[in-house]
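Sharing a chain and its predicted structure for anyone who wants a worked example. Both blocks are below, sequence first, tokens second.
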Amino acid sequence: MRLSDLLSGWAGAEVTGPTAVEIAGVGHDSRAVVPGSLFVCIRGFRQDGHAFIAEAARRGAVAVMVERDPATLPIPADLTVIRVANTRAGLAAVAGRFFDNPSASLRLIGVTGTNGKTTTTYLAEAILGAAGRRVGLLGTIEYRCGPVTFPGERTTPESSDLQSLLARMRDLGAWGAVMEVSSHSLALSRVDGCEFDVGIFTNLTQDHLDFHGSMQAYAEAKARLFRMLGTDRRKPGEAAAVLNAEDPWTPFMREATRAQVIEFGISGEADLRVRGMALTLGGIRASVESPWGALEVASPLVGRHNLANILAAAGACLHLGVDRDQVQAGIGNLRAVPGRFEKVEAGQPFGVAVDYAHTPDALERVLQTAREYATGRVIALFGCGGDRDRGKRPLMGEAAARLADFLVITSDNPRSEDPLSIIAEIEGGVKKAPRGSQLHVTIPERREAIAFALARARGGDLVVIAGKGHETYQILRDRTIPFDDRVVAREALAALGYAGGDTRSRTGTAPGGR
């Protein structure tokens, strides 16, 4: 594709140099530049792409997009220079054109919210699979389309990587794609140019305030997805916003959208509403009323929060024309989601569940679920990630001390921070809970902490290992090491004499970064 075609009609770009050149690739990583590329300089959290123009040129870039004054940059004379106000938005615009606007050929479901995004995308994928529709999946755990998997390192990829993935899914014959849409990706224009058919809002609770600064700014970022719905729509049918009727931020999301609104709720009135339910450690059964008729839901997933996720996924798929029988079948087909209340069983007389909960609300929900199902005590183990929202640490400590019978505080992904300092901030919240000071121990080394928690468990207890879920690594100050809570738990159970577990990882995913 010629550069002139990529830039056609773009009034905000200042171009210096020829535009008749052929562009063989569009990207933001100088290490991935191929001859004939347009290199887009974006400012990251740690590095500025403008510092890598010379490297991109050495690798064969023929054009560069910048947002800084070109006169201050070491740009080779033979490169065409495109200056724009915001290179992140510019990257999204040219990537969409370069990959021939793949979202226009796919039915696209975007799921945003603090908690529940991953499970909701897995449920939507399972429902659409039961309807015979091949879909791509993009999110925290993996990117895949049917049996084909793609490498990835963040919940929502950068816009050029996202458009490339959607194009590959389209070329694999996908009917659509289901993706997690993080607040970072919305604030940083990663999903600009994507034409969503459905946007799902799960909930909004404290997280990522180190990036957004306030809950209002965090909500504003989430609302961008719903503002996108129906804007410049070219596909047939009406876009829909599927919103959690029980979340206090839903009116804000509703006001942001021009799309059809579908609300779901477990109690109270909503478009999809529960009229009867049974929640056990064996799963969920519920009778659901909807504008498409009644559904009888049966799922092996556990907990009230997962019933909300089921309603969200069902609403999205029903809107897209999936019939009720297929919705019910797909919900029942999803046996588990990696690292989401994932049971570790080795013949022990107590329960062990590994969960990704790493926000105050998510930890409270998973421990409330554990309290409902444990016949004995609830033993909780968790830590908080370093270089992330510090304000949630005491909140998580208070929630854990209030809901668990015994608490083990340990390290999560400490990154550049001192693990003991992180633990001290968690303990500040623990001490605010009744009997909090008497109900916990601190063991900074996570492997040792897991072994301790499991050795303390008795028949009927339920041990919740929270924070890392599906992750197969631990990020320390100077290195990233292999670490999988599920594997470590099985090894600890084997050391206690329980031999019924498989000590291999169930996911087999390689270490990466969150």
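Comments welcome. The first strand starts at residue 14 and ends at 16.
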